[in-house]
Amino acid sequence: MAAISREEVAHLARLSRLAVTEEELDMFAGQLDVILQAVAQVGEVAAADIPPTSHSVPLTNIFREDVVTPCLTPQEALSGAPDAEDQRFRVPRILTEDVAS
Amino acid sequence: MSDLTRMTATEIAALVAGGETSAVEVTQAHLDRITAVDDRVHAFLHVDTEGALAAARAVDERRAAGEVLGPLAGVPVAVKDVLATRGVPTTVGSKILEGWRPPYDATIVQRLRDAGTVMLGKTNMDEFAMGSSTEYSAYGPTHNPWDLSRIPGGSGGGSAAALAAYEAPLAIGSDTGGSIRQPGAVTGTVGAKPTYGGTSRYGLVAFSSSLDTPGPCARNVLDAALLHQVIGGHDPRDSTSIPQPMPDVVAAAKLGATGDLTGVRLGIVSEFVGEGAEPGVMAAFRESVDALAKLGAEIVEVSCPTFAYALPAYYLIAPSECSSNLARFDGVRFGLRVGDDGNRSLEEVMSLTREAGFGPEVKRRIMLGTYALSSGYYDAYYGQAQKVRTLITRDFTAAFEQVDALISPTTPSVAFPMGARTADPYQMYLADLFTIPTNLYGGPGISVPCGLSEGLPVGLQVMAPTMADDRMYRVAAALESAVGTFTPPAL
Amino acid sequence: MTTTLPAYDEVVARYEPVIGLETHVELGTNTKMWCGCPTDFGGEPNTRVCPVCLGLPGSLPVANKAAIEAIIRIGLALNCSIAEWCRFARKNYFYPDMPKNFQISQYDEPICVDGYLDVEVGGETVRIEIERVHLEEDTGKTLHVGGATGRIHGATESLVDYNRAGIPLVEIVTKPIPGTGALAPEVARAYVTELRDVIRTLGVSDVRMEEGSLRCDVNTSLNLPGAEWGTRTETKNVNSLRSVERAVRSEMLRQASVLDAGGRITQETRHFHEDTGDTTPGRSKETATDYRYFPEPDLVPIAPDPAWVAELKAALPELPRVHRRRLQQQWGLSDLDMQSVLNAGAVELIEATVAAGTTPAAARKWWLGELSRRANESGVELAEIGATPAQVAELQGLVDAGKLNDKMARTVLEGVVDGEGSPTEIMTNRGLEVVSDTGALTVAVDEAIAANPAIADKIRSGKVAAVGALVGAVMKTTRGQADAKTLRELILERLGVQG
Lengths: 101, 491, 499
Ligand SMILES: [Zn+2]
Description:
Chain B: One of its GO terms (cellular component) is glutamyl-tRNA(Gln) amidotransferase complex. Chain B: Keywords: ATP-binding, Ligase, Nucleotide-binding, Protein biosynthesis, Transferase. Chain B: Residues 25-471 form the Amidase domain. Chain B: This is Glutamyl-tRNA(Gln) amidotransferase subunit A. The structure holds three protein chains of three kinds. In chain A, 33% of the residues lie in helices and 9% in strands. By secondary structure, chain A is α+β, with helices and mostly antiparallel strands. In chain A, strand 2 and strand 3 form a beta hairpin. The longest helix of chain A has 18 residues, at 22-39. By secondary structure, chain B is α/β, with parallel strands linked by helices. Chain B has helices at 9-17, 23-41, 49-64, 107-114, 157-164, 181-187, 221-231, 249-257, 279-294, 310-325, 346-357, 360-373, 379-402, 425-429, 436-441, 469-483, and strands at residues 44-47, 76-80, 118-123, 170-175, 190-193, 213-218, 265-269, 298-302, 405-409, 445-453, 456-463. In chain B, helix 2 (23-41) packs antiparallel against helix 3 and helix 8 runs parallel beside helix 16 (469-483). The longest helix of chain B is centred in the C-terminal third of the chain and has 24 residues, at 379-402. In chain C, the strands form three sheets. Chain C has a nine-stranded mixed sheet with strand order 3-6-7-10-1-11-12-13-14. In chain C, strands 5-4-15 form a three-stranded antiparallel sheet, with no helix packed on it. Classes of the chains: A alpha+beta, B alpha/beta, C alpha+beta. Chains A and B meet through helix 1, helix 2 and strand 3 of A and helix 10, helix 11, helix 12, helix 13 and helix 14 of B. The structure holds zinc ion (ZN). Zinc ion binds next to loops of chain C.
């Protein structure tokens, strides 16, 4: 049985903001299926009581002092922008109303 | 004077310091070499002729003013296009960043400038450092100077090829799963992945934040150590940078070069000398092991059973982090924007931009990572992979209670022909089988040339405990003293 | 939808509300959460940005120690346990005001958990349980162009300014609060008020709702008595203390009308509208995106040293509730009187007025009397009325010095509220000063004695109480600008009578 369906790949592409083509969907579905079957091997390892590792350095409490450092100029900040207006980054109209916090 | 491009970094620095040549002369010689061969090798994405000559002139002026210069002053360096360089194009081998000139320098780039090295330009790489052959560069592949029909390894194939083609004596790479060591192995050069946190990631365009490690590439071990010393050490801009002095890798390389490994215990990872590697690679590896034993090292075999799961764990962790790291490439603040016709919504424009800007391997990994982090799959994939990471670390820790360093072939095979693995992504992943465990653990690893198989270079990997980078340099330098360096056929 | 809303009394008679509050506080650190860019409000667009807060490729975050310290102090003030070890997490979703397209936040390992905050409502103490307090980063600001009134709908394009992106944001989440019945809206308001006062006391934020440094989301649900809790809605865009109360009330009424009509409540985000006082639906939570949280690999875990936490705890300032109790004693107020001071939002104002040299009774008189009346009339918070504690103290000083009488002081205070200047300036400009020129006054007194010989005789014969008639006469001729007490003494003196 396939680990991942073409529909799931289409959903992943939408979540990832990738406007993939139909041909790509076919290709990726097959390839991701092969990869997922291979990486699913991690499930063979008995690790129920093993703590996960998110960082390989055993560091904690790395902080910065609350001291102002120089900013970019607005020209530098906007220098790479595909489009800018009124010293702001211009984007096309926004459909979703998702807001953080 | 003999050909400046054939010299080691150490020799060049001495000539510049002694006034026997100038930094400008050295730089010009390398720029000429690039002009002569890079249309065939394609190691560089961008050659910064003006910037390099200006930097070289500055070094010469400082010397003329009587300043004492650092040990690598006046030495040219090629920088992998994964590091942000102020005002100099930085693309990460991707169309999505075509034309981007960062408004800031990576910490490593800043340190290279401060040390008086001369940045020649930016080297080719697999897009976003995802690949093992440099064939996934959006700007065309790099060719292996040993055989132009073969891959130079990846993702840092550009840096390794630049060294092997004598276009630069030193180069910077970044190693997430083997991207410094594997290209080093297949081009007959030295590539070192420092301890994670031993070199700053600030300004390194992230692929997998918990694994990415920038490091030095060179044609010999001492040069690599000198470069390591210049770029390494604590950086307060990187929270994962280790706030401790780094080990003296240069002294270790010099000690190793004396050819004495008496009292050093080396462990062969038994899981990596089974059927995984090609016979020619294994033959060269076995001969090197004998050479190390002759230098006085005690050789034992060590088992690291969970290393078998390193590759699957890596291909869950790295894509997961990458799916998040690459979200910022959306055509809003920098880089490519596609399809903004005044009609389409931001969401459509973003999706079209990312579709057009990313190559297939990047898209595969973004989707794979998005999948592995999804709420229904997190525990089985990403969560489980992180537990495997713990077990791999435990294997390393246990091994280093028995031995000072671990050794293995760097790669299972020599440089494979171009196009051989592009159709099968998972076959491509296998090229990093032996290098990946070190990244998951966070310790240092170095690939040093150890012989040839059918005329192509083979690398030996030395792995050491975290923050014991000096040990791997000692062993690598000792091996180098025994087997020598390897010169590719003339281009 | 034009359904008639049921009466509030009926709603709370039939349904039990459960509320919950998520409050965001922008910390007043010098610099942003992950970089050294300054945090001050305002500023030209994209002038307070760097590679880190713009999310440029290669940039990395480093946590601001002052922000970590601030959140631990907030947690301690809210009686939370401080985690021994916790991590930041990435919350992944695409939105252009978020430079990295993920927000660095905290997920299942918040730094502060399980606290509470006691608030007073209607003379009762209500304990609000705090579920978590965590640290995250603020977003940039998006300007929608081409649509109506800057709204996202109908806009043709948007413009983004990242000055605010990366400012440290503390999120304080309550546990669900059941059992408050008809008082639910007031409890919500009292909680946010108390929380604001606590945070202001700690000095870690200016907590100004109108500038957005304190933002509140209100969760509301209704259930039948004894039944399971209902489906909740989350109301955003609640930008004042008054709105907190109105939003809960309005959402209770709306939900009741839906339930009364046999409908069901949709779990969704709603937006509060200050002008109409009601809420409209936003994005439905049922189709909420999967945020794919995972530990932030670019930041190492936080493991606050217990000794440091103990030090911070010991150094906490007196919290508002304790402080208020002490003031109540100092001011000699009954519980009821103190409650009216609280309700008027006058504690700090009176305190500051007293600190400027006024007696507690006089300070209370002005703030709860004249000024509260004016605040109510114009529908503003007492603190925003336009008179400062220093001005009130100055005014009372003039009264105490005999320069203003009570009636004139009220007139001067009106002037202060209307922005005419300081009490002394207004007094001078309006020519309101009590006539203290004894020469002029003596002439007026002598005239009054001459004009009223019968009354003068009465006083001379010992009927001192009759002096009031002469005082009234002098007041008339001086148009009230004399101090009654001074005047009385002067009349007696001119008549050779002991007062
Ligand atoms: Zn910044």
